[in-house]
């Protein structure tokens, strides 16, 4: 098999759309899923906006025995994996167990499940703690439950990381496929919109305290004041191009063509941030010049210092206003480990349809010399796109996706 690894199935669960088709329609149209947090009363907290998935009913999609064993995060991941496999036209029972694997990223684990069991422990005693707590909280639980449900016993794992981790997981999946594995489900789903998870996210100091859903998350804007958290993400079915063609996959969304990852130097060292180098490595890996990239899907931290680093990295690689930049996550919030895989799915759909989704409500400050796609989608015959992600603490990752022709 050659080294070309492609995406043949998408499973998406986002605050503004569940399912790839509904999500993509919302992203193109600038439909937001951000509002006041409703899963618990946020009035006593400094941040009160979130991107919540509404109308998700685990009981309608999963066996009744499985629902009590799993956190909301894992329930969303299991349904997303089912959707991705169905979209790819894959029936796992028809493939050898060891030819299939699962590689996901996880930033929080099953926070909501864990919070409930800790409440039982403190208020009722240890005999009231569910045995399922032993794994339902765990970072690797999504990979484990997806592999068990679908009989996937090949190379698998989890990367415990936030925003950048979603791209790192996809890169790890690509390595396994290049090593001979026939199919990998990869990406990330996170959901920690519970008091325990909320306090953990507040500790970062990066959450927006705005109460206006239209003004809460404004990357590259002079009014930027942090990000809005969200839940959800995307899972991708990845396989070798030859295998996809041999089995006549219903569609090939595109190729995972390049990947780069770096780590920022220690603060105060005087060395430059490493995001630019991650982008350059991804382009080199894809054997693509900057002019071959039709759009950049930004990390979009919405903190001035971090936005400045990202805008400078983009302009140094592509030139001032040298490439359209978009941040559709302003419509969903940042989804931790699920955010970058959702951007990957969005980029693949953008390349397929020749449409760069908008970044509504954001007016870029003059200091950021980037061509930010505004409140309307932009038609473009793009053949490749770059997805950028940064994790808390200095992790940088970048992935190039490309239309698969020839």
UniProtKB/TrEMBL annotation:
One of its GO terms (molecular function) is 3-oxoacyl-[acyl-carrier-protein] synthase activity. One of its GO terms (biological process) is fatty acid biosynthetic process. Residues 2-403 form the Ketosynthase family 3 (KS3) domain. Keywords: Acyltransferase, Transferase. Pfam families: ketoacyl-synt (PF00109), Ketoacyl-synt_C (PF02801). Belongs to the thiolase-like superfamily. Beta-ketoacyl-ACP synthases family. This is Ketosynthase chain-length factor.
């Amino acid at each position: 098999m050659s080294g070309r690894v492609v995406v043949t199935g998408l499973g998406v669960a986002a605050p503004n759309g569940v399912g790839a088709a509904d999500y993509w329609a919302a992203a193109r149209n600038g439909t937001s899923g951000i509002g006041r947090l409703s899963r618990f009363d946020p009035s006593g907290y400094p941040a009160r906006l979130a991107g919540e998935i509404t109308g998700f009913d685990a009981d309608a999609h999963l066996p009744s025995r499985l629902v009590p064993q799993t956190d909301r995060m894992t329930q969303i991941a299991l349904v997303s994996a089912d959707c991705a496999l169905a979209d790819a036209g894959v029936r796992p029972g028809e493939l050898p167990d060891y030819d299939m694997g699962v590689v996901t990223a996880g930033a929080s684990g099953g926070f909501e499940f864990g919070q409930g069991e800790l409440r039982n422990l403190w208020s009722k005693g240890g005999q009231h703690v569910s045995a399922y707590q032993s794994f339902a909280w765990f970072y690797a639980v999504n990979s484990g439950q997806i592999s068990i449900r679908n009989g996937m016993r090949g190379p698998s794992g989890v990367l415990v990381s936030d925003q950048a981790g979603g791209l790192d997981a996809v890169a790890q999946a690509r390595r396994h496929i290049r090593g001979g594995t026939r199919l990998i489900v990869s990406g990330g789903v996170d959901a920690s919109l519970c008091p325990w998870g909320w306090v953990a996210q507040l500790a970062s100091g990066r959450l927006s305290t705005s109460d206006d859903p239209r003004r809460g998350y404004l990357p590259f804007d002079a009014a930027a004041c942090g990000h809005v958290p969200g839940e959800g993400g995307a899972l991708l079915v990845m396989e070798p191009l030859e295998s996809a063609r041999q089995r006549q996959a219903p569609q090939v969304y595109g190729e995972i063509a390049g990947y780069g990852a770096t780590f920022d130097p220690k603060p105060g060292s005087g060395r430059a941030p490493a995001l630019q180098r991650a982008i350059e490595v991804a382009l080199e890996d894809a054997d693509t010049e900057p002019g071959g990239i039709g759009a950049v899907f930004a990390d979009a931290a919405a903190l001035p210092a971090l936005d400045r680093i990202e805008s400078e990295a983009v302009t140094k690689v592509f030139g001032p206003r040298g490439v359209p930049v978009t941040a559709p996550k302003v419509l969903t919030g940042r989804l931790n480990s699920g955010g970058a895989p959702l951007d990957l799915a969005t980029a693949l759909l953008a390349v397929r349809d020749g449409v760069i989704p908008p970044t509504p409500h954001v007016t870029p400050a003059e200091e950021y010399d980037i061509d930010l796609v505004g409140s309307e989608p932009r038609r473009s015959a793009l053949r490749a796109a770059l997805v950028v992600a940064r994790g808390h603490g200095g992790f940088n990752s970048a992935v190039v996706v490309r239309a698969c022709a020839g």
